[in-house]
Amino acid sequence: MAFSQTATTHHFLLKSNGGVIQVTVNDPKDTAKRDEIRMHLQPIAHLFSAGDFDIPMFIHDQVPPGVPEMKKLNSKIHYDYGDIADGGKMVISSADAAAVSAIQKFLRFQISEHETGDPTTVK
Question: Structure pTM?
Answer without folding.
Answer: 0.90
